[in-house]
């Protein structure tokens, strides 16, 4: 079975930090380009961070310098460290393969308040 389970979201004060986790199963994780997607209320889902099989990373300009994506292939895990959170970061965060997505998980809700 293919499963993507996001966790770690919650309510956080603006300027604070949060670390999201994604547990992947049923995929060839170590050869999968993985990403974190953000869906703000009323907006389309947006790729904000990605990490290649070689651990090269890319970030959307909106999160560059604040978010860090990482992976642990031995554990089939992807992480997103979010620092200096802004109210615009509020939304649901999903992980998935980039370019060849599996069915989306439930995501994890991040709410940033002032």
Structure summarized in a few sentences:
The protein has 114 residues and is mostly beta strands. The chain has strands spanning 3-7, 10-13, 18-25, 34-39, 45-51, 57-59, 67-72, 77-82, 91-97, 108-113.
Question: What characteristics describe this protein?
Answer:
mainly beta, 114 residues, globular, four-stranded antiparallel beta sheet, 10 strands, six-stranded mixed beta sheet
Explain what you see.
The protein has 114 residues and is mainly beta. Helix content is 0%, strand content 51%. It has no helices and 10 strands. The strands form 2 sheets. It has a 6-stranded mixed sheet, with no helix packed on it. It has a 4-stranded antiparallel sheet with strand order 1-3-8-7, with no helix packed on it. A hairpin with a 5-residue loop joins strand 5 and strand 6.
Structural class: mainly beta
- Kindly state the number of beta strands: 10
Shape type: globular
Please summarize the sheet with the most strands. 6 strands, mixed
Average of per-residue pLDDT values: 95
String of helices and strands: EEEEEEEEEE
- The Rg value, from CA coordinates, equals 13 Å
- Please state roughly what percent of the residues sit in beta strands, choosing from under 5%, 5-15%, 15-25%, 25-35%, 35-45% or over 45%: over 45%
Strand order within the widest beta sheet: 2-10-9-4-5-6
Low-confidence stretches: none
Q: Helix share of residues?
A: under 10%
Separate helix tally: 0
Termini separation (Å)?
40 Å
């Amino acid at each position: 079975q293919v499963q993507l389970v996001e966790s770690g979201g919650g309510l956080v004060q603006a300027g604070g930090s949060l670390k999201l986790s994604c547990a992947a199963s049923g995929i060839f994780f170590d050869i999968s380009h993985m990403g974190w997607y953000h869906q703000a209320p009323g907006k389309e889902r947006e790729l904000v961070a990605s990490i290649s099989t070689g651990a090269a990373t890319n970030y959307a300009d909106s999160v560059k310098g604040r978010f860090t994506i990482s992976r642990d292939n031995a554990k089939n895990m992807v992480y997103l460290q979010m620092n200096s959170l802004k109210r615009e970061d509020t939304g649901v965060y999903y992980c998935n393969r980039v370019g060849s997505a599996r069915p989306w998980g439930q995501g994890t809700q991040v709410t940033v308040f002032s």
